[in-house]
Design goal:
Order of helices and strands: HHHHEEEHEHEHHHEHEHEEH
Number of helices: 12
Largest sheet: 6 strands, mixed
Shape: globular
Radius of gyration: 21 Å
Helix content: 25-40%
Structural class: alpha/beta
Number of strands: 9
Strand content: 5-15%
Length: 339
């Protein structure tokens, strides 16, 4: 294999894929002459390395997962969507909404607002491809056109996957049997390989390990959601993903979002979590049933998100030590000094 055709690796990354991976993790763009991920990391100022919350080993492992994910072919029958449009409706008082909105593949948009503000209604309007026939009067277009009837009313061939806070399995299957059944229904050329990939991603996101022989009815809430997030990312052809408060799911939130972005999904996420809210490409402020504002994060918000992510990493480390019954020392929180 010639050098120009070689697959990218953490040791010899392709420039565009490395740039996409770093942007996804809110890290500075690589220099044009960056020869490896390790060289990139060593060239970063100490403060930026500290603020990132990464160690080199974790960065390399995540980049391997990114490359592996980008290379899978589980989406051969995905219906292409260039643009999802939500045309403005009205608020709970009947007043006109301010914004027509367009969403594109690979974009993460967060919905924020108090409980009862209308975040779930906004997601529901997209799920049912509303055509002025819901309480908000919104209309949803796919690639600028009214969606076909099968996209509105067929759960199987529809365009939207939804992950909610409440999720229970009722089938008596092992995790591997459940995933294989879904993979075979997709007529994939190598279902076993995809099943293994989904399982690895799910275990990586879940706080507690499990394996393919675990009964799905025995999974904890976090494990169940991690499994369904990985299933939706790798096995579902649906190009739009709606997520309701993933912060309560007990999973690695950033990894979950990364999976969907890598697959080119349009992700709309209702959240009260400040890190997630600041991680989106945009966030919609929902008040009184309507989109009241649209905010794009600027440099200051990005810096705040970086600090919060650092705190979150330290907190997760201490939580894991407590789980193991260990004693906590000041050194376990030293990474917060100066933040």
């Amino acid at each position: 294999m010639s050098e120009t055709n070689a697959s990218p690796t953490p040791e010899a990354p392709a420039e565009t894929q490395l740039g996409a991976f770093l942007a996804l993790n809110h890290l500075p763009a690589p220099a044009r002459d960056a020869e490896s991920l390790e060289a990139y990391w060593e060239a970063l100022p100490w403060e930026e390395r500290q603020a990132s919350g990464f160690a080199l080993e974790k960065l390399q492992a995540d980049y391997r997962a990114f490359l592996e994910s980008a290379g899978n072919e589980a989406f051969g029958d995905i219906q292409p969507i260039d643009e999802l449009t939500v045309l403005k409706g009205r608020d709970k008082s009947g007043q006109p909404e301010r914004f027509d909105l367009k969403f594109r593949p690979g974009e993460v948009v967060c919905l924020v607002g108090p409980t009862g503000a209308g975040k779930s209604r906004f997601l529901a309007d997209i799920e049912c491809m509303a055509q002025g026939d819901t309480p908000t009067g919104r209309r949803v277009l796919i690639n600028g056109e009214v969606p076909a009837g099968e996209d509105r009313f067929s759960g199987e061939s529809g365009l939207v996957a939804q992950i909610t806070q409440n999720m229970n399995f009722i089938m008596d299957l092992t995790v591997e049997d459940f995933l294989m059944m879904h993979a075979e229904s997709r007529a994939l050329s190598d279902p076993q390989q995809v099943v293994e990939r989904v399982l690895r991603a799910a275990v990586d996101m879940a706080g507690e390990p499990f394996d393919g022989q675990t009964q799905i009815t025995q999974l904890s809430g976090g494990q169940s959601r991690a499994l369904m997030i990985a299933d939706a990312a790798f096995l579902s052809p649906k190009p739009i993903v709606l997520i309701d408060e993933i912060e309560n799911a007990g999973v690695d939130r950033n990894r979950a979002l990364q999976l969907f972005v890598e697959k080119g999904k349009i992700v709309l996420l209702s959240t009260h979590d400040p890190i997630l809210a600041l991680s989106g490409d945009r966030r919609l402020v929902i008040r009184n049933g309507a989109v009241a504002d649209v905010i794009e994060p600027g440099p200051e918000e990005t810096a705040v998100r970086t600090k919060l992510a650092r705190l979150d990493t330290v907190t997760a480390g201490i939580r894991e030590r407590l789980r193991k019954g260990e004693r906590i020392e000041l050194s376990h929180a030293e990474a917060l000094d100066g933040s």
